[in-house]
């Protein structure tokens, strides 16, 4: 297995190189400077190549070499031409690629590796992509559009506040805190392409949204004069960008910042959650675990001693004939029903059922009546 430019150059210098080398350069692709977007293109090309079993060598941030020592490179090259044509149809700079036949063109490949400046591929009619490949490529194009919109957008215009209300002992409702989110429906309208129905695209765009909402708080620190929450991935919390942000806040502002971490994040791990909670506690921020349900029969690895709020999805909650909700699991009762938020009860009957099982916090647009 070859590693990096050095390993490939040693193979070329040894005189043992055989087959076909395809050098792919992404530097002309829009947003290639963004590691997230560049990795999406790399993953797409790797999926194309995998079925033809080349050795893949990374030779720089923007360049990969696909070395076919035994198999035929022609099908993979055909895919590359189709991808380049698809990018051209979208009026986007396409991945550039150069083909070398070894050992005859070892000197030319060696020279290119030393300067990492691929030539433009010959202009040939591209074959069609399979439907699955077209779908994958369409996802990359959508990501590019969202990148473009978010890079120049005033996120303030896309931000939405969702209040969380507390019922006091006198039955009066007061504001506990407000969740600040990027309104996905507003973003979809701005871009003109759906996001929520595309899990891959949503997963790719979420880290970008995290960074943009952090930047929003940096520019709008007055929000933290009162308690506000923000939903972030655990990876974002442990990243330097978030820690640089909280380092600049006063103690009171940090205490007013509540970070919500989703319990249903497919990338959530015990170690990851623990690390994120440690960071938040270090900086005096409060912690909420989002997207729980009554089906969570136990707390699992949730560090409840370090958590301030739980947020409960109740959209699918079934009430009995008397309008009563199922009881809270024992671990939620031990945590404290008065620290559990019922998310958007759809009507007064469901709100009453939530109050009936001891909940005193409700997330909804208007103050409950």
Detailed description of the structure:
The longest helix is centred in the middle third of the chain and has 22 residues, at 131-152. This protein has an 8-stranded mixed barrel. The chain has a 4-stranded antiparallel β-sheet with strand order 2-3-1-4, sandwiched between helices. The protein contains 13 helices and 12 strands. With 369 residues, it is of the alpha/beta class. The N and C termini lie far apart (67 Å). The radius of gyration is 26 Å and the shape is elongated. It folds into 2 domains: 4-139, 2-Layer Sandwich (Alpha-Beta Plaits); 153-363, TIM Barrel, CATH 3.20.20.450. Strand 10 (309-313), helix 12 and strand 11 form a beta-alpha-beta unit. The protein has helices at 4-14, 35-50, 74-89, 106-115, 131-152, 184-191, 199-219, 234-237, 240-247, 251-255, 270-282, 330-335, 348-356; strands at residues 19-25, 55-58, 63-68, 96-102, 159-167, 173-182, 228-231, 257-262, 286-292, 309-313, 340-343, 361-363.
Radius of gyration: 26 Å
How many domain units?
2
The name CATH uses for the topology of the largest domain is TIM Barrel
pLDDT average, as an integer?
Answer: 86
CATH architectural arrangement of the largest domain:
Alpha-Beta Barrel
Fraction of residues in H or I helices: 40-55%
The CATH superfamily of the largest domain turns out to be EAL domain
Strand order of the largest sheet: 5-6-7-8-9-10-11-12
Characterize the biggest β-sheet. 8 strands, mixed, barrel
Query: What is the global morphology?
Result: elongated
Strand residues, percent: 15-25%
* SSE-based structural type: alpha/beta
CATH class of the largest domain: Alpha Beta
Q: Indicate the low-confidence ranges by residue numbers.
A: 117-126
